[in-house]
Amino acid sequence: MGIQGHVEKANLYYTPKSQKLAIAWAGHNRFEMQDVLRGFSRAMYSNWLWHRPLQLLVDAGEGLQLALGTKVFSPSVVAITHGHSDHVMGLPGLIASRRFGKGAVDKPLTIYYPEHSRGVRAVRELLGIAFEGVVFPLTWTAVAPGATLPLGKTRTLHAFEVRHSATEPALGYKVIETRRRLKPEFAALPQAEIESRARDGRRDDLLEDVAHITFAHSGDAMPIDPALVMGADLLVHDATFLSEPDRREPIHATTEEALDVARAAGVKTLVLYHLSIRYDRATALPALRAQLAHSGFTGACWLLDESELIHLNGA
Ligand SMILES: [Zn+2]
């Protein structure tokens, strides 16, 4: 299957009508995961995440445009969680590639970022000086916690406040799509009866719209409120520390806290990111797998470590 086939398959999963495929996608398959997510995470160096079916970038750490390569023209939206340098220093490179590279140089790009972010303001000032007079269809939108933003035709992007830095406002994001499902009061009806009513033109009486979270990202954060991401298909959560005593300031989550958020929210797939580079991976990974086994979280669990997605379920 070519690249195009993969994209179509991944998009199918996120089509509101394709409930069946959404259920079948349990998040344990490496190739499916790589179809959906690409990213990089090295705490204090560079962090970004590309959600291909949603055409959404979360954060823009350094090296982003090199990793995207010819896909540099794909993103329509970049959602910045906060203005720390390891999350925004890739913006100049991304924007330069979009402006001067070979491709859809006039494709609009929208950057959402937390209002009052000093780090983002610094990058904007740099770009303003470097690209003075250059016309580029670039929109900067300052976002307040609680804001609902457009994301394509069928989805919205919601920003929520998270606890991170004392000097930089920080947001998490979630993508909500409206799905149609059978009203619970008809759940006991035989399939033949449901089909017959639908054929009689009573389809709309049978169905109701429900909001579904397809994707959520905590950004750098202390553990988020599970109520914010209830039932999400995919949650990316800060997981900087393997143990609580390693944390000196209340600005990042531990791996166990992230697992607990995922368990309490009943998410299907959890991706941990931002694991501190203080931990030797040869000992950290078995420790993390043991934590997962004891966490009560039964979904699929991955660690994004640099550009690698490491499956943590099983051995
Ligand atoms: Zn940070």
Over the alpha carbons, how many angstroms does the gyration radius reach? 20 Å
- In sequence order, what are the helices and strands, one letter per element? HHHEEEHEHHEHEEEEHEEHEHEE
Per the principal axes of the C-alpha atoms, what is the gross shape?
Answer: globular
* Strand arrangement in the largest pleated sheet: 7-8-9-10-11-12-13-14
Between the first and last Cα atoms, what is the distance in angstroms?
29 Å
Q: Supply the helix-strand structural class.
A: alpha/beta
Q: Please work out how many helical segments DSSP would assign.
A: 10
Q: How many E strands?
A: 14
Polypeptide structure, described:
This protein is of the alpha/beta class and 315 residues long. The protein has one domain (29-311): Ribonuclease Z/Hydroxyacylglutathione hydrolase-like (Metallo-beta-lactamase, Chain A, 4-Layer Sandwich). The chain has 10 helices and 14 strands. An 8-stranded mixed beta sheet has the order 7-8-9-10-11-12-13-14, with helices on both faces. α9 (255-265) runs parallel beside α10 (281-295). The longest helix is centred in the middle third of the chain and has 16 residues, at 191-206. Residues 1-24 have low confidence and may be disordered. Bound molecules: zinc ion (ZN). Residues 82, 84, 164-165, 220 line the site of zinc ion (ZN).
Please describe the structure with a list of short key phrases separated by commas or semicolons:
315 residues, alpha/beta, Metallo-beta-lactamase, Chain A, six-stranded mixed β-sheet, disordered N terminus, binds zinc ion
